[in-house]
Specification:
Layout (H helix, E strand, L loop, with lengths): L13 H19 L7 H11 L6 H16 L1
Helix pairs in contact: 1-2, 1-3, 2-3
Length: 73
């Protein structure tokens, strides 16, 4: 998935955007390989937090919806 900064509800710098891209890519891979049994939004929030990324809850939810849509294609 290509990360569109408008979905983040914040203006991340390049390093933050790269960290988010990395977390999203790993999560998408885990979903595709059947390694995700938890709610995608909750799991994304935890992984972003572990990566030191703080996003508003609505941004995490929007990203989770995009991930689910992207992976289901």
């Amino acid at each position: 998935m290509t990360l569109h900064r408008a979905h983040l509800h914040v203006a991340p710098d390049d390093q933050l955007a790269e960290a988010i891209d990395h977390v999203v890519a790993e999560l998408e891979d885990d979903i595709r390989h059947g390694r995700v049994a938890d709610d995608v939004s909750r799991l994304l929030g935890r992984r972003l937090e572990a990566a030191g990324v703080s996003l508003p809850p609505n941004a995490v939810e929007d990203l989770a919806e995009l991930i689910e849509a992207d992976v289901s294609l």
